[in-house]
TrEMBL record:
Residues 181-359 form the AprE-like long alpha-helical hairpin domain. This is Sugar ABC transporter substrate-binding protein. InterPro entries: HH_AprE-like, Poly_export, Poly_export_N, Soluble_ligand-bd. Residues 241-275 form a coiled coil. The gene is exoF2. It comes from Nitratireductor aestuarii. Residues 126-165 form the Soluble ligand binding domain. One of its GO terms (molecular function) is polysaccharide transmembrane transporter activity.
Amino acid sequence: MTVKRTNRSYASLARTGISALIFALASTTALRAEADDYRLGPQDKVRIKIFEWRATRDEIFEWKALNDVFVVGANGNLSLPFAGEVTAAGQTPTEISEQIGDRLMERMGLGRRPDASVEVVEFRPFFILGEITQPGAFPYRPDLTILQAVSLAGGLRREADRFMRLERERIQSRGEISLIGLERLTLLARRARLEAEINGAEKISFPEDLTGLGDDVVAMQSMTQERFIFESRQRAIQTQIQALDDLNNFLEAELVALEKQLGFLDTQIASIEKELANVTSLVARGIAPAPRQMELERALAGMRSQRLTAETSLLRARQEISRTELQKVQLRTSHANEVATSLRETEASLAATNRKADTALHLLHESELLAPVPSEQVKYTILRTDESGNPVVILANESTPVLPGDTIKVEVLVSMKQAATTNADTVSITSSVRR
């Protein structure tokens, strides 16, 4: 009975630690695709999840017919089973989730509104046309700028003369360097987190390359995300270690009880042996009856059997303690090996990123030296639909943010002048990438 109780307790505590680890790791991946105030439009894809707590059955009910990815139609609506047509254009994900919950409660006669969540999984495309290599529609990505959009579209259109080709290369190089800079910041933050994990630090010490950027959005987001991952992983490891420590404490208490039991059994065995020796002597002299001697011998055999069982339980408890200690060592070793592997991969990615940055900077330097630049620079215009559905024309530059559904028009002026030998923008970009 003691062994079965021990195994059940061990299994229960182990499941507790594993469940905590799964929850902690899974929560690290639940990142938002865009800000909550993003307003949807046609061609946006959203993932809808709806659950309902049914107290009478003490269970969470999943609306499987609605838990899927849906596309906003050309009329700006989402067509959903049970809920019907739900207005999505101009609405935020939070507002749509409230609509869906209210519609289901009304149509299905529910006592309370089910919990609905709406997450944007794919934004509607943006469009780009004009003096670029590949005009058309392109998938939108968060924090996209005009310069990056031009880079995605292949840069400026190649003209017959070499000057336009060099100008296109300049635009492409600047866009590539911008993307490389963002990737480098992410890798620097990840490396700092992995170094903190492998050194057993209580918090992450980020390099000056990140902290020195002030309120840079990408740097702040990268550091915040890595802090969250660091804390989640630490909690997961500590939860598993605590589960094993609790199991050890339970086994230690059981060891004490078994040792006390062995002491009691030894006392009883010694008493029976003494009494049996006296009775045996009396039986040999014919003073005591033989059945009394047999009764004591049976009692002594029973006590010795109990002592053997207690010793076996004691050995098994000690074996379980050794096993949990080994599991703690294996857990820490596995975590250390995983972190070391991730650190090596991150270092390799960072080195590759630096090499790509050097190549892009070299190409940009050549383009800046040789390429003529438009006297008015490249002209960018954005045609955007406002919240009222009216078209709005926006004069933009290379750093202007692009939104889903935007139409970008790129124009290159004919008048040219030779670029300066040293371009200030090149110096600025070089500094930001090599920080």
